[in-house]
Write a structure and sequence with these properties.
The protein is an alpha/beta fold and about 220 residues long. The chain has 5 helices and 14 strands. Bound molecules: cytidine-5'-monophosphate. Cytidine-5'-monophosphate binds next to helix 3 and strand 9. Its cofactor is FMN; Mg(2+).
Length: about 220
């Protein structure tokens, strides 16, 4: 099939992906173990169904798919600004592992080991990008969030869907024993207002394909 052909032809889908990096000083930052693999696979699958994809990504291990409108960011604040600028969209998938906190004060010079004791890092809360987009006038018709949990996965993810106001939540157990974070497979439950749909463990690309097809179906 030609590029931009398929059930999502003419649709704009926004995808966030990867971790964010929150600077401490010019040479240090806070990060997390997100590889960006699931987000990149989702963008790829959406492209394959003909969507125009805006891909807003933090510093990921995995390359962005060819053919997306690529916006690279470092911090949660930059990701939020990029997401707002990318709207309107028909659908949005928030696969990024956004840092919950940033430094309350970043400093312009490298923090020195000066013998005056240990530095104390003070945190400030980052904006919740997903929740803020769901509360917007420009909320896309279908908004999909992720919930990476290590305990009570379904309960936590169900509560998270309501709290954030998104349509679907893709819930997964990221306990180290699952090998999911940084791995090539995922084991997810899709949560909507109608309940929880448990998908078998499969490749991240297969999760992406199935999710993209469901998005196409929901947009009609
Ligand atoms: O609250 P928690 O981080 O578990 O929520 C995960 C979902 O919310 C993911 O879809 C993530 O991309 C999104 N999120 C966000 N901005 C934040 C925190 C999470 O968009 N600051």
């Amino acid at each position: 099939a030609a590029v931009n052909d398929g059930p999502l032809k003419g649709r704009h889908v926004l995808v966030t992906s990867g971790p964010t990096h929150e600077p401490i000083d010019p040479v240090r930052y806070i990060a997390n173990r997100s590889s960006g693999a699931q987000g990149a696979a989702i963008a790829q699958a959406l492209l394959g169904l003909g969507a125009k994809v805006t891909f807003v990504t933090g510093p990921a291990d995995v390359a962005a798919p060819m053919g997306v409108d690529l916006i690279e960011v470092q911090t949660a604040a930059q990701m939020q600004a990029a997401v707002k600028a990318a709207l309107p969209a028909d659908a949005a998938v928030f696969a990024a592992a956004v840092a919950d906190w940033r430094m309350a004060n970043t400093v312009d010079e490298k923090i020195k080991k000066d013998g005056n004791g240990l530095p104390v890092l003070e945190f400030a809360e980052n904006p919740d990008i997903l929740a803020s987009v769901c509360a917007e006038k420009q909320k896309p018709k279908l908004v999909v969030g992720f919930a990476a949990e290590t305990q009570d996965v379904i309960e936590n993810a169900t509560a998270k869907r309501k709290r954030k106001g998104c349509d679907w939540i893709v819930a997964n157990d990221v306990s180290p024993s699952t090998g999911i974070m940084g791995g090539s497979e995922n084991d997810v439950t899709l949560i909507s207002k109608d309940g929880a749909e448990d998908w078998p463990r499969m490749g991240k690309d297969q999760v992406a394909q199935r999710l993209a097809e469901k998005i196409a179906e929901a947009l009609g």
